[in-house]
Design a protein that fits this description.
The protein is of the alpha/beta class. The chain has a single domain, classed as Ribonuclease Z/Hydroxyacylglutathione hydrolase-like (Metallo-beta-lactamase, Chain A). The protein contains eight helices and twelve strands. Helix 6 packs parallel to helix 8. The two termini are 17 Å apart.
Length: 248
Amino acid sequence: MLGTGTSMPDPERVQSGIMIQTEKHTFLMDLGSGVLQRLVSSGVDITRIENVFLSHFHVDHCSDFPSFCQSMWLAGFDKTLHLHAPPQVDEWSRGVREIGYPYLLEKLDVKIHHLTEESVVHIGRCKITNIPTKHGSMDARAFKMECNTESIVYSSDTAPFEEFIEFAKGADLLIHECNWLDGEYPKEVHTSPSELHAIVKAVKPKKVVVTHVSPQVANDWDQVHAIISDGIDAEVILGEDLLALEVL
């Protein structure tokens, strides 16, 4: 877990970012503000990263991508960087690159792959699929990584919806957002503790990491944990920046 926070500034958490490592491959899911620094702190050789998945184009999930590209170039990355994202990626990437770092357009080879519901990406022994989430009017995606018999599901930003239950069912590790406390909040945008409890109860994962954690949720974690884990067999963990988990 590289970044477990939200758009709200938090001295303990940077914005969204996850790193997945297998025996031969390292890839990223989301690159919000601060994630590049956490990536360096993790000790990984960034030139091993050849695939980046962006769930959507809210800045707390993608704003470090330009800095990441510059760092890759400075580190001597000489392969193709594969960027997997929703179809709006063409306009977004063109604008970001032309305005933010036009000098890199010819120095870093970035190949864009549009994510559709039918997309299946193979990276070594891992298969990555996606499903559109319910996040206001934004085209956002949840991801599932299946490596041999193990699976990891990352919700990205979403409110609860029925299709996600089937998509995530039986995951070894469910990484799910919990942006705000129970109570009055905008509907069909994010997930509350009680809603996450219902999701976990239906999905039946082996382990849950709660991410996209606002300061309010973090400060009230004991109560939030009690709500999510009530009657649940799965271990429920508060995501922390640089938390490392092994999925066997």
